[in-house]
Amino acid sequence: MFTCKTLSDLHQTMERIGVCLPLSSEYGALRRPLTVAGRTLLNRIAIQPMEGCDCVPDGAPGELTIRRYDRFARSGAALIWFEACAVRREGRANPRQSFLTSDNLDDFRRLTERIRETAVQSGHEPPLLILQATHSGRYSKPDGVPAPVIACNNPLFEKDAPLPASCIISDDALFRLEDDFAQTARLAQAAGFDGVDIKCCHRYLTSELLSAFIRPGAFGGSFENRTRLLRESYGKAKAVVTGDFLITSRLNVYDGFPYPYGFGVQDDGSLAPDLTEPIRLVGELQKLGLELLDVTIGNPYVNPHVNRPADWQPYPLPEEPLQGLARMMDCVSGIKRAFPSLSVIGSAFSYPRAFAGNLAAGAVEAGVCDLAGFGRMAFAYPDFADDLLSGRGLDARKCCVACGKCSQLMRLGGTAGCAVRDPYYTRLYKELTSK
């Protein structure tokens, strides 16, 4: 268990297990302005896309969605990365996942306006707003029951019950999907977002294709084919938006699965990261105009210790959580070193609880990343950014404890939030687990 009470305790623990994390004793680096695509962000804190599963049936924001983004807007974070928004109905992860269409465009526009107004009323500058466009792939459940759409069969996920060939998406459907991503980008701009993320992480469809080494056809096998959906969707989205609207991506640069079932991994059967292909891919996206990248690793469904280190997982922990955190920092810094001019967001900063701000500031100081992205912490402690930027630091009594209950709520079919710090979700968690 994470038992560090002081920064000195954390340094001693790191020394004991042999890891090095960039820790700062103060938070000044988080208050430095950053220019991204000609826009000035007044601080280095980003709120990561955390799915709430609380939209109304047509995909428009629901009451809990609005409640959550009201809280994020008041936090003072310079960037809010809006949660996963399906580009096709078949690609919704659940019946309450966000889904932007021409019919509910005004609902999303009202939300973006509200976020900016709430930020200003709270004494902050309006945040940069990015919409995450996705197809949930093998995790699709548009009607509440599994309806997987996969790039290819994978024994690591399917074990001795391979999904039928009818679940494998065709090349023709993938070519059409490129246009769906572009359409969502066009609608996102009309809804008042500042940019759109062609989501390519955590083993959703676009991410799964990156490791489709065994898939035949135009979207499998070679590097060019495996990256086609991301690259072409990015290019088509860029072509339909106007002005300084950002096209970006939240990108898995390491899956944590052995070759040929993982991306960003050595091809010797080990789980050692190899950023050769991820760096090549980011270079291709930069040629298309990429100026901002959100870096992550792992899969929250199968190896969550890789992308969100915690003291407990539903399987024996293969490593100390701080070792996983160090791997994340190494992967993020590997991308930043390769592309110094690219604005890079790092992930997994919530694990060290009250010292998350020390890690975030240290990572920015050391050049690991340009912005520190917080997901679980924003659920548990919505005003965390305000406390960090004011210099007060984080209150340990409010911090995320990395228990995973927010994700468990989603798995149980409920709406997602912090079951430890937020009374609404505490009650919901008790109801669902008692059943």
Question: What descriptive keywords fit this protein?
Answer:
single chain, alpha/beta, TIM Barrel, 11% strand
Description:
The chain has 16 helices and eleven strands. It is α/β, with parallel strands linked by helices and 435 residues long. The longest helix has 20 residues, at 171-190. The protein folds into two domains: 20-402, Aldolase class I (TIM Barrel), CATH 3.20.20; 403-435, no CATH class. The chain has helices spanning 7-17, 63-75, 105-121, 155-158, 171-190, 205-209, 223-226, 228-240, 276-287, 304-307, 321-338, 356-365, 376-380, 384-389, 405-411, 423-434, and strands at 34-36, 39-41, 45-47, 79-86, 98-99, 128-134, 195-198, 246-252, 292-296, 343-346, 371-374. It is globular, with a radius of gyration of 20 Å. Helix 2 runs parallel beside helix 3 (105-121) and helix 5 packs parallel to helix 8.
